[in-house]
Structures are given as structure tokens and as C-alpha cells.
């Protein structure tokens, strides 16, 4: 158990809908990363937050947004969902920007 | 050119073999290097974390970093069927964003 908690584990929704994925980082970790992994693809970096502030941005679509709250948990919002958004979404956390990151077990999103 | 290159495999070895996994990178600002193991549809698990150049050993795993060649390696001794997974290298620099390789799929056969 990495200490990073992601909910829900599975999500099935229809095209055009909006969903929110939640991540609770390890105790004491200030940095949260979001990654997308499509079937048989590598990990694609979406966005990173550090202590509530956006730190780095990857290839995140405009339909996607994220935030980190004062208690350091983070949410990833996906809207106007398309079939191609079906993927595993992982959250990772680290103490700071340069320390090792630990991953949650992911949320499996299926858009039908 | 991708910042991090990793041979996707698959790499198939017999049980007990020494496995060598490698990544090359182009960004000279990378200073922190990690190896993760990912079982199918599970979250990546951190195996090794190293800073700058040198070697680090942990049980059957050894990580090597050669910054002059922009090349990192993970060696697995006495490989076991339970080592069958995808191995991902990751690295970061002052930007603090982790950059991953695409992963090498390893199969250890009986």
C-alpha cells in the first residue's frame, strides 16, 4: 500500500458527461501529480500541484481541469467526455518537487 | 525526439537470469532518477530512487546512472516469474515534473 488513495476505483459514464476523480496524497506529501494511461500506452503527464499551486502542466486537454485543496487532496475534473477519454487515471504524490513519487491504484474510467 | 527513450520489449528471459533494463535521455537537467514496476492495470510501484550519477543496490535490484552518457540502467539478479511486469524509468530535474519512459515489458519464464 503506497498510502495514496484514489476514488472511485471504477467509473462508467456516457459521452458528454462530467466526472470528478479524487486523490488523497500520502501524509506529509505536498506535491500531487495526475497521469493518464490509455490501453497499452505509457504514462502521460497531465498536471502537477504543489501545496495548492499549479506547478507544471503537461498535455492536459482544455476539457480537463484539476485543483488541490487546503487539506492537500486533489480532484481531477473531466468534462464533455469522449470515448477516447477512456483510460486509467493515476495520481501520485511526493514530499516535494524533487523527491520520489508514490502512485495510487488508479481510477479506471470507461466512457460509453 | 522524446526526452526519455526506453525499449518497449517485450523482453523474455528464463528464471534465474540477470535482466538489464535501460533508458536514455536527452535533457541534461535531469538529476533524479527512478525505476517503477507496474503490474497489469495496477499503479506503478517505486523500486529504486537515485540522485545524480552512481550505483545503488537494494536486494536483487541495482540501479546505475551515467549522466555523462545520459544513460540509466536497472539490473535484476536471479529473476523470478513474479518479476514479470512492465518496468518504467522516470526522471526529473529542477522543473520537478516527472518524465517517464514508455516502459519495457519483461516476461520471466519457468
What's the overall average pLDDT of chain A, rounded? 94
Pick out the low-confidence regions of chain A.
none
Secondary-structure element series of chain B: EEEEEEEEEEE
Number of strands of chain A: 11
Largest beta-sheet details of chain A: 7 strands, mixed
Distance between the termini of chain B: 37 Å
Content of β-strand of chain B: over 45%
Main sheet record of chain B = 6 strands, mixed
Please provide a brief summary of the model:
Chain A has no helices and eleven strands.
Describe the structure.
The complex is a heterodimer of chains A (112) and B (110). By secondary structure, chain A is mainly beta. Chain A has no helices and 11 strands. In chain A, strands 2, 4, 5, 6, 9, 10 and 11 form a 7-stranded mixed sheet that branches. In chain A, a hairpin with a 5-residue loop joins strand 7 (64-68) and strand 8. The N and C termini of chain A lie far apart (31 Å). The mean pLDDT of chain A is 94. Chain B has 110 residues and is mostly beta strands. Helices cover 0% and strands 55% of the residues of chain B. Chain B has strands at residues 4-5, 11-14, 19-25, 32-38, 45-51, 54-58, 61-66, 71-76, 85-92, 99-100, 104-109. In chain B, strands 2, 4, 5, 9, 10 and 11 form a 6-stranded mixed sheet that branches. Chain B is globular and about 40 Å long. The relative contact order of chain B is 0.35. The chains are: A mainly beta (112), B mainly beta (110). The interface between A and B is medium-sized, with 29 and 24 residues.
Amino acid at each position: 500500500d503506497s498510502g495514496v488513495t484514489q476514488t472511485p476505483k471504477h467509473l462508467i459514464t456516457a459521452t458528454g458527461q462530467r466526472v470528478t476523480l479524487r486523490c488523497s496524497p500520502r501524509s506529509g506529501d505536498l506535491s500531487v501529480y495526475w497521469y493518464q494511461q490509455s490501453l497499452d500506452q505509457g504514462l502521460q503527464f497531465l498536471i502537477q500541484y504543489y501545496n495548492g499551486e499549479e506547478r507544471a502542466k503537461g498535455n492536459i486537454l482544455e476539457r480537463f481541469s484539476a485543483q488541490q485543496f487546503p487539506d492537500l487532496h486533489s480532484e481531477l475534473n473531466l468534462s464533455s467526455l469522449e470515448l477516447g477519454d477512456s483510460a486509467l487515471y493515476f495520481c501520485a504524490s511526493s514530499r516535494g518537487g524533487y523527491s520520489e513519487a508514490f502512485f495510487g491504484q488508479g481510477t479506471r474510467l470507461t466512457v460509453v | 525526439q522524446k526526452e526519455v527513450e526506453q525499449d518497449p520489449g517485450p523482453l523474455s528471459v528464463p528464471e534465474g537470469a540477470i535482466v538489464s533494463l535501460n533508458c536514455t535521455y536527452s535533457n541534461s537537467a535531469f538529476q533524479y532518477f527512478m525505476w517503477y514496476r507496474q503490474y497489469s492495470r495496477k499503479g506503478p510501484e517505486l523500486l529504486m530512487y537515485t540522485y545524480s550519477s552512481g550505483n545503488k543496490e537494494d536486494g536483487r535490484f541495482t540501479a546505475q546512472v551515467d549522466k555523462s552518457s545520459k544513460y540509466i540502467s536497472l539490473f535484476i539478479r536471479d529473476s523470478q516469474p513474479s518479476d514479470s511486469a512492465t518496468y518504467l524509468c522516470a526522471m526529473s530535474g529542477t522543473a520537478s515534473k516527472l518524465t517517464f519512459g514508455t516502459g519495457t515489458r519483461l516476461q520471466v519464464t519457468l
